[in-house]
Amino acid sequence: MTERNQTPISEFLLLGLPIQPEHQNLFYALFLSMYLITVLGNLLIIILIHLDSHLHTPMYLLLGNLSFSDLCFSSVTIPKLLQNMQSQVPSIPYAGCLTQMYFFLCFADLESFLLVAMAYDRYVAICFPLHYTTIMSPKLCLSLVVLSWVLTMLHALLHTLLVVRLSFCSDNVIPHFFCEISALLKLACSNTHVNELVIFIMGGLVIVTPFLLILGSYVQIFSSILKVPSARGIHKAFSTCGSHLSVVSLFYGTIIGLYLCPSANNSTVKDTVMALMYTVVTPMLNPFIYSLRNRDMKGALRRVFGKKTILFSVSW
Ligand SMILES: *[C@@H]1O[C@H](CO)[C@@H](O)[C@H](O)[C@H]1NC(C)=O
C-alpha cells in the first residue's frame, strides 16, 4: 500500500451488472421500464398532493417528500446505468463519480429519515388520535422535513470529504453499477481505516437508529390496535402497516446487510443484486404501497383529473 504509481486517476470504469451479453437488451428494457414507472408514479403522487387541498395534511406532505426523494434517488443511479449498458467504455469521470456518491448518500439518508417521520406520524395518528392535530402541526412537519434535509446533506458531505482526501492509483475498475462508497474505498491506495470507521459509526446512527425507531412505532401501533381486538381493526392494522413494514424491511434489510455485515469473500454479484433492490425496486414500489392503493389518493385522482381517470383508478 505504500509508494505505487501516484498519477491521479481522472476517471473510473463502472463494470455494471453481471449480465450475459445476450441478455443485455432484455435487462435494458426492464430497467428502463422500471425507471419510467418510478418517475411517473412518484410524479403523479407529487402532483396530486400539490393540486388537491384535501391532501394537505402532514401524512401526505411527508409522502410527497418521500416521492420526491425516491424520484431523485433512482435518478442518481439508473440513467447512468442505462447509458453505460449501451456504451462500449462505461466510464465516469472522477468528479462525476464523487458527485454521484454524494447524491446517492444524500437521498438514501433522506429516504431513511422520511420513513421515520412517516412512521411517527402514523404512531401519533393511531395511538393519540385526539391529540393528532395539535402534535403533528404543520410547523412540526416542516421542521421534520428541514431537519432531515440538513442531517442528510451534512452526512453525505462528511463521507464525500473523507473520500476526496484518498488517492487512487492505477486500479480504476469499480465492480458495481454506480459509484458506491465501499467499492470505491477498495480501490484507494491510501489508508481507508478512518473511512471504514466513519461508515460503520454513521451507518449505525443513520440507518440502524431510524430502523429501530420505525420498528418501535409500528409495534406501538399494533399493540394499540390489538388492545381493542375487532376483525376490522386487525384487518386495517395489517393492511396499512403490513405493506409499510414490507417496504421498510426491504429497504433497511438490504442496506444493513450490505454496509454493516459486509461479506468476507467479496461476493460482488450478491452485493450488486442487493443494491439493485434498494436503488431500483424500493423507489418504484413506494408510491404504490404507500398511496395509490389508498382511498384518499383515489379520491384525489378523481377530483384532479375528473371522470377521465375512472378507468385508470379502477385498474389499481
Ligand atoms: C415536503 O414537506 C413540506 C413541509 O411539510 C411541504 O411544505 C412540501 O410541500 C413537501 N414537498 C412535497 C414535494 O410534497
Q: What's the arrangement of secondary structure elements?
A:
Elements: E1 11-14, H1 24-51, H2 58-86, E2 91-93, H3 94-127, H4 132-135, H5 138-164, E3 173-174, H6 181-187, H7 193-226, H8 231-259, H9 268-292, H10 295-305, H11 310-314
Parallel strand pairs: 1-3
Antiparallel strand pairs: 1-2
Helix pairs in contact: 1-2, 1-9, 1-10, 2-3, 2-9, 3-5, 3-7, 5-7, 7-8, 8-9
GO molecular function: G protein-coupled receptor activity; olfactory receptor activity
Membrane topology: Multi-pass membrane protein
Transmembrane segments: 26-48, 102-120, 140-158, 197-216, 237-260, 272-292
Structural notes for this entry:
- The protein has 316 residues and is mainly α.
- It has a single domain, classed as Rhodopsin 7-helix transmembrane proteins (Rhopdopsin 7-helix transmembrane proteins), CATH 1.20.1070.10.
- Helix content is 74%, strand content 3%.
- It contains 11 helices and 3 strands, in the order βααβαααβαααααα.
- The chain has a 3-stranded mixed sheet with strand order 2-1-3.
- α2 (58-86) packs antiparallel against α9 (268-292).
- The longest helix is centred in the middle third of the chain and has 34 residues, at 94-127.
- The radius of gyration is 21 Å and the shape is globular.
- The protein starts with 10 loop residues before the first strand and ends with a helix.
- The relative contact order is 0.14.
- The model is unreliable at 1-5 (pLDDT under 50).
- 2-acetamido-2-deoxy-beta-D-glucopyranose binds at residues 46, 49, 61, 64-65, 68, 141-142, 145.
- 2-acetamido-2-deoxy-beta-D-glucopyranose (NAG) is lined by residues 46, 49, 61, 64-65, 68, 141-142, 145.
- It is a multi-pass membrane protein.
- Residues 41-290 form the G-protein coupled receptors family 1 profile domain.
- This is Olfactory receptor.
- One of its GO terms (cellular component) is plasma membrane.
- It comes from Ictidomys tridecemlineatus (Thirteen-lined ground squirrel).
